C-alpha cells in the first residue's frame, strides 16, 4: 500500500518514523493557507488538513494520502507561523504566562478517494517569560517559521509549565490519531 505524505515538514517525517512508518513519497500540497474571515481555529486546522490532502490526492492517484495542519490558538485568534523577530516576540509575549490551544488536524484519503479526519486538541501553558528568557529564545532562532513562534521539541519545552494532550500533536502530527487513521485504512503497522 503506497503512502504519500502531503507535507515537506521534517518534523512530520520524524514523527512518522517513531511509529515505524516511512512514506513512499513526500509531496507538499502548496495551497493557500489564509484563514477565512471569522474562521475559528479548529475549523481552520481541519480545513487545511483536508485541503492539503485533496490537493495532493488530485496529483497522486491511488494509495493513501496523509496530510496534517497544526494551529496555535490564543482564544479565537489563530497565531501565524512567525517570519521575523517582531512577529515572534509578539506571539510569545501574548502566550507568556497563559494557556493556549494547539490544534492538530489529520486527514487521510484512501485509494478510492474516501477521506477520514481526526483533530487533536492540546492545552499548553507557558511560564511567564522574563525579558532575559524572551530575548534568549528570540536569539536562538528556533521561532522561525513556527506557528505561535515556538518549537516545543526544542528550547521552548523548558518554558512549558503544563501540557494536557498530545505532545506529538504540538510538534506537528498527533501520533495516536494518525496511527488510528492508518489502521482504519488497512495500512500495515507493527
Task: Annotate the secondary structure layout.
Blueprint: E1 3-5, H1 10-18, E2 25-26, H2 41-59, E3 64-74, E4 77-79, H3 85-95, E5 99-109, E6 115-126, H4 131-140, E7 160-164, H5 167-171, H6 175-184
Parallel strand pairs: 1-2, 1-3
Antiparallel strand pairs: 3-4, 3-5, 5-6, 6-7
Your description of this structure?
- The longest helix is centred in the N-terminal third of the chain and has 19 residues.
- The chain contains six helices and seven strands; from the N terminus they run βαβαββαββαβαα.
- Strand 1, helix 1 and strand 2 form a beta-alpha-beta unit.
- Helices cover 34% and strands 25% of the residues.
- It is elongated, with a radius of gyration of 17 Å.
- The chain starts with a strand and ends in a 6-residue tail after the last helix.
- With 190 residues, it is α/β, with parallel strands linked by helices.
List keywords for this structure.
7 strands; elongated; 190 residues
How do you describe this structure in short?
This protein has helices spanning 10-18, 41-59, 85-95, 131-140, 167-171, 175-184, and strands spanning 3-5, 25-26, 64-74, 77-79, 99-109, 115-126, 160-164.
Strand content: 15-25%
- Low-pLDDT residue intervals, each spanning 5 or more residues: none
- Distance from N terminus to C terminus (CA atoms, Å) equals 14 Å
Helix content range of the residues, please? 25-40%
Shape descriptor reads elongated
Overall mean pLDDT score? Answer: 96
